[in-house]
# Entry
Amino acid sequence: AITTRPDSAALRIQYAKHLEQNNKPGEACDQYLALMKVKPDWITEDLNAVQNLFRRQNRMPELVAVIRTINFKSIRQPYYIINLASELSQNEANTDVAVELLEKIFAAFPSYRSSLISNINNPKMWQNDRMYQLGKRLVIPTPLDMQSQPWTGIDQIYSRSGNGDVSSHFHYLV
# Structure
């Protein structure tokens, strides 16, 4: 059926899941990669499960390579990509790729600024100049923000300690 209708996302999803259930994870990965090229917005439907499959098959670089080519404006929920970038940021070798994904999300979804910073838990990421520049863009309000939310970028508190200390976007940058 897929050979006769190669652009059918529904068939590819069904076939990929069938392959996965029948112990053919490598072939399932191939189908998911093809699916993302046909219907990139599908990625947010089941990215966690797909990531786990690619991780088990040691094919994460292939998955990330395809995700990097997606027009992020075509996806509905950027949280999955933000989480992927956060996971990638844990390994210094992936810093540039993680920053690239975050930059693309920022460009496509500027309203998700707080999610971008709050999910980067590796302090070494902030030593990367591109990440630091992105961080500055995340906390400095735009002219539009100044009209509606002048405290954008410094108003998000992530944690509070018993002695009154808080962690915020601003603290990450400092």
